[in-house]
Structure formats: structure tokens, C-alpha cells
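<instruction>
Derive C-alpha cells from the sequence
<data>
Labelled lines for chain and fold
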Amino acid sequence: MVSIVNQLAQQTAVPTPATMGTIPRDVRRVIDRQIDDLNAADRELLTAASVIRREFATAAVAAATESSSETVEAACARLARQGVFIVKSGCETWPDGTPAELYAFRHDLYRELLYDRLPATRRGLCHARVDRRLERAWRGRLDAIAAELAEHFERGHELAHAIPHHQRAAAKALRRSANQEAIVHLQRALGAIEHVGDKEERTKFAVELYVATGAAHIAMRGFGAPEVLDAYTKAETLCDQLGERPDLFAALWGQWMFRAGRGETQLTRRLCTRLLTLANRYADPILKIQAHHAMWSTSFVCGEFAQARRHAEGALSLFEPAIHQAMASRYGNHDAACCARNFSAMSLALAGDRDGATP
């Protein structure tokens, strides 16, 4: 700690995250000597553990080293008793029933220097082994560790496999309004899209990612942000390559939201017509609700209160909270049923029916 503080004090420029994260040379030398004093088996175990994160499960280390869990657990227990590198931090059972002891590096410096010692090929191999094991263990509950899996697949040089995990992590982030986090995951997924071998599958992924990106930008920057139009327009263009598909609806809906946010009434009317046509063609309740959503908002802005109320009631007749509340993060980041009731009440009030507008 003294060495780190002294290094920061000696910096002539204002410290940056990069300079604050560097390890002083004398601290590095001390830790390097501690690592060198380990026997080969312990050193291999700890470098494999450094691939995971500061807290790691023995079952994941066993996968990285292709060792038995019993061997890894015994070695970790012994190293924890020595108290130099790791400490015991608990235990857990993975969804597939695998029991796993939990340990943690005493400090991120230990993990960082151990990780730096791994050759690139060996590092990628360890990440690949860990991600495969975690993916099997958490099958059916992948959302819970989506960000961790995406990281392992990326570092294991399996970029195409990282994409669906980035999607899950982004969707999870959107549900808790962590919009910037969602955008980062979506951008990383888009950056890996060329690694998907099949052209049609690659295009499908790209459509989904651009639609999700548009939704994240709406939530973070507002309906009329240029990033919103850019994302949804790209999604529509890609849909054209695949032929008409349900994905086109979300791309058009996002463009409707952008145009509505900028008050471009004529364009919103045309988009509403296309949305209703698609929703009726696919007979999907979600699409129908959101087509009505576009219509009640557009009708209200145009002073067509009876029509706005009719579309709001049409959506409410289809809306099932247990099923449809989850679509909020994809469509405008707000609850469609709440919006429908709001516009219906306002339409009644402005039409002179104040009693009907009162809940």
C-alpha cells in the first residue's frame, strides 16, 4: 500500500484510471518472488484460477486444469491455510447439482500478476474450458451468468459463441435500466458478428442486436435521439435481406417511436399502417398490442380521441401481465397497459367525459 501511494504521489500529471491501475515495480517483485516460491502444481492451479475472477469455484478450476475436483479442493484448502494468496469464501451448488467450494484471491494484484504469467494460448484454452463447463452447469439459467460467459468465450477466442451471452446480458441490463451496460454488451456482440459462419444466422443475430440497441438508446437518450433511428434503420435493411419476418415489426416500431418523438405525424401514420398489417399477418398478441400502442398514441396526437380510445381498449383486451409486461424493455421502455389506460383516460377527458376518465 505504501508503495502504491508513493507512486501516485510521484506522478507529475493528474492520475488516470490507467496510471492508478499500474503495479509499482517493488510490489511486483515481491509478489513475483512469492509466486516463484510455489511448487509447480500450486502455481498451475492459481494461474488457472486467475482466469476465472477474484472469487472462483473449485469446480471451475478443475475444468480449467482438467483435474479432479477433489484434488483442486485439497490444494486450495492447503493454500488458504497458508494465507498468502487465497482465502476461503464459502460454498455453492451449481444448477446441475455440482458442489463447489469458493475461494478468493486476497487481492486483485495477486490475480493480475498470475494471469499475466499465462501464455496467450494457454490462457485462451483455460477460458474455453471454463466457459464450456459453466455453460453446461448453468443450462436453463444462463441469464444469471451471461456476462461472465460472454467474457470467457471472448477471451477463449470463441467470439461467435459469445454473442448470445452478450444478448442475454444486455437484456438483463435493460430490465434493470442499466442502459449503458446493455449498449456495451450489444456493441461487443456486433463487433463479433462477422465470426458467425452462416450468412442467414449472422443476419438474424445482427437484426436482433440492432433492435435491442435501438431500445437501449431510447431508454438512455430519448425517443428522438439519432442513434435510435440509425439502429432501427439498419435492422430494417437487414430484414429486407431475409425476406419479410416478424423481426421487421420491431425495426419499424422503433422508427415509429423516433418519428413520433420528433412530431413527424405523416410518417408516423404510414408506419402505423404497416405495423397493423404486420401484426394481423402474424397473429401475434405482442405485435398486435404494440401496433395498437402506436395507433393510440398517433391518433391522440392528431386529435382523434375516439380512435385513440378504441386502440387502447383493443390492446388492453389482449394484455396479460404475466406474459406481456416483460416486453417493455423492447418496446419504448414502459408498460403498454399503463400507457393504454393513460391515453384512454386523457381521450375521454378531452372529449368531455370527465366522469368516464376518472379511475
